[in-house]
Amino acid sequence: MKRITARPETAHQAALLRLLRDRAWSRAELGDVVDLSRSKLNFEIDRLIELNLAEQAGLAASRGGRRSGMVRLAGSLRFTGIDIGATSIDVAVTDGELKILGHVSEPCDVRDGPVIVLNQAMEMVGKLRDQGYFTQLHGAGIGVPGPVSFREGMPVAPPLMPGWDRYPVRETVGQELGCPAAVDNDVNIMALGELHAGLAKQVDDFLFVKIGTGIGCGIVVDGKIYRGVSGSAGDIGHIRVDDQGPTCACGNVGCLEAYFGGAALAREATAIAGRSPYLGERLRRTGTLTGEDVAAAAEMGDAEAVRLIRDGGRRVGMVLAGLVSFFNPGLVIIAGGVAKLGHVLLAEIRSVVYRRSLPLATGNLPIVLSELGADAGVIGAARLSSDHVFSAP
Amino acid sequence: MKRITARPETAHQAALLRLLRDRAWSRAELGDVVDLSRSKLNFEIDRLIELNLAEQAGLAASRGGRRSGMVRLAGSLRFTGIDIGATSIDVAVTDGELKILGHVSEPCDVRDGPVIVLNQAMEMVGKLRDQGYFTQLHGAGIGVPGPVSFREGMPVAPPLMPGWDRYPVRETVGQELGCPAAVDNDVNIMALGELHAGLAKQVDDFLFVKIGTGIGCGIVVDGKIYRGVSGSAGDIGHIRVDDQGPTCACGNVGCLEAYFGGAALAREATAIAGRSPYLGERLRRTGTLTGEDVAAAAEMGDAEAVRLIRDGGRRVGMVLAGLVSFFNPGLVIIAGGVAKLGHVLLAEIRSVVYRRSLPLATGNLPIVLSELGADAGVIGAARLSSDHVFSAP
Asked: Looking at the complex, does the CB of residue A360 fall below 8 Å from at least one CB of chain B?
């Protein structure tokens, strides 16, 4: 029978664990930032050590007087981050500070449904256990490529995930791994990854825009994911670009995704294949084109592909310009398959946002490409789990 | 010499005062919701009573055992809310629960600059003192019709307020009234008014859209105003409606304000005056037309005026539809001079938002007209002040 892993017993213990997640602290330093008497603070720290959540780490440098004891998260803490994409699964195991210890990636098809896909994910977690990365997990975070009811821990009417509607992902994974679990959509967990370990580390309020099969946005307010009242915040793919556009899968015309989502890009690529040597050749060989083919063509300097990307970037920029005026973020990060299109795309987005948003909102606003790549998802999923476990009981 | 009014000494005292702002509580009930031992709680409450911030209010109904003492905010607490508009000043004095005790309203011209306008506001506060509504104020909140650096307590490059740029409004008012002061823009304070006493009372995340000379939006996240990293969040007047529109004062084309701000509405009204009996007559008499004339004409059933309002409402709806998909609010409130256009405007906005936003975001989304009117500004300004004074030291 598995041992039950400890969780913080009080709000103070949870707050201490969140501080220790960033680095080791001396007891004296902790006393400076938490609102507890010295004896109560030492009691809570000692209790965290008893619970195997924290451990002593020698003595701090002297601040005058007796040297204070250092405390850090227990070296035995382990979280897993599971990032389920439309066509792949990434699983990582991290320590308490959410540094990746082991990471495996496998192809999958999310349309095979939750039983097959979650079984594969559990086997991948098992491989990491067999490789010695953990014996017991303290928490698991899962990202899925569709809308999620965060409170209920399940996907809700996800368009790309047949069979997953209201499937109890959180409950299933929690029972299977014997630890607390949390589920969110892939864009939110990638935003959390950027917050924890990426370009947004020092930024409280930022937007994370993922351009892939769909187009979505993670919104971080005051260092926390903002999900909106029904959990759909950040769903920007169906914001109107103009009234005379292609018809979108949602039934409206002129949505951003109808211009620059994965399906739209594949359609446009096929339409220009006659004028593009690279895409034409590729279409003859494989019979179909994807957004990634457009990226590859653009990288090789194919003028028609570059034009497609510029047009798409301009439209993403138009939507983002409005959101930047509205939200006044401290940073915008662009990521996702299409973001591999890189600097052509970024230049176009920047040019529109800097021209069309309020000067006060763009004065100090960096717009950058994500640097974390596939790590953003797994680190973010581990962070989601850690936030959940290190929260007040 | 004036007596210095007390402020809470600890974060716990501040939290207790914020609870007491909503209603009277028994000590037992407070013990259920705050994370304090019984003796520490009683110590903090007794201290608030000593400081003349709270007072005893008899005994609570029995919950079994000894009856618990009721506590409420001190009856002597007084805040003032000062709402400076482009052409009027509203000043109110409230009690600690922010109920309006006295309210005066006077015309003014904000372009006369801060010395003349703030002097007039101070005289209006003096009138309320002379009428016996207070002897000493515990805090003052001020709203102004332009962008504000909330941290610095001053307007920053406000387009409609010549002479006010970086004028130390918070410092001046605080010194003049001998109490802590706080300053924000008019849209944010009206949103706070709705949060405290209006339709948003039970709503944590909502948008407050003011359509007047300019078009702005107050954003409330988790019961607090979200201001963005440089304080410009909610400035939606320059979001692009389309690429072939009128040129805006900001230099871009097709901004929302270029279609439906006060100046645009006046221009359009003049253009259609030949086809509109009411507007034509009004233009002959006064030589100029305003948005309020359009409202009056529409109310009388003038077809051309109604068409103007419908067109404007449709464009506000297009912008709002995107913001609703992005932000997934629990409520949208429409207010401001043009909002007096009422139900024609509201119907048009609703129709576009409900059609163009994500179904998940609009499923339970009410879009309503403000019911507070001029009270929203003064109550919100008092609330801003109360939030400031009842915050951790």
From this structure: yes
Which CATH number goes with the domain that contains B134?
3.30.420.40
What confidence tens digit (pLDDT) does each residue in B118-134 have? 999 999 999 999 999 99
Q: How confident is the model over A2-14, as pLDDT tens digits?
A: 567 788 999 999 9
Kindly give the interhelix angle for B303-327 and A303-327, rounded to the nearest 10 degrees: 100
Q: Answer whether B244 touches A (CB < 8 Å).
A: no
List the beta strands (DSSP E) in A145-187: 148-149, 154-155, 181-185
**A4 domain residue, yes or no:** no
Torsion of Cα atoms, A48 then A50 then A52 then A58, to 10° = 80
Contact A230 B360 (CB under 8 A): yes
pLDDT at B1 over 80: no
Taking every pair of Cα atoms in chain A, the longest distance, rounded to a whole number of angstroms, is 79
Alpha carbon distances (Å) from B363 to A229, A284, A323? 11, 46, 22
In this prediction the ipTM stands at 0.89
| Chain A environment of B231 (Cβ under 8 Å) | 328, 360
Please check whether residues B121 and B218 belong to one and the same domain.
no
Domain's final residue, options B30, B58, B73 = B73
Contacts of B226 in chain A (CB under 8 A): 221
Q: Is A208 on the interface with B (CB under 8 A)?
A: no
Q: With beta carbons under 8 A apart, name residues in chain A contacting B252.
A: 355-356
| Alpha carbons B148 and B182: distance in angstroms, whole number | 11
**Touching check for B249 and chain A: CB below 8 Å?**
no
Note whether A211 and A224 are same-domain residues. Answer: yes
Residue-level pLDDT at B134:
95
pLDDT of A3 reads 63
The better pLDDT of the pair A2, B66 is held by B66
| Single-letter amino acid, residue A181 | A
Same domain for B185 and B224? no
Show the low-confidence residues of chain A (pLDDT under 50).
Answer: 1
Q: Give contacts of B11 with chain A, Cβ < 8 Å.
A: 35
CB contact under 8 A, B321 and A240: yes
> Is residue B129 assigned to a domain?
yes
pLDDT of B214-228, one tens digit each?
A: 899 999 999 999 999
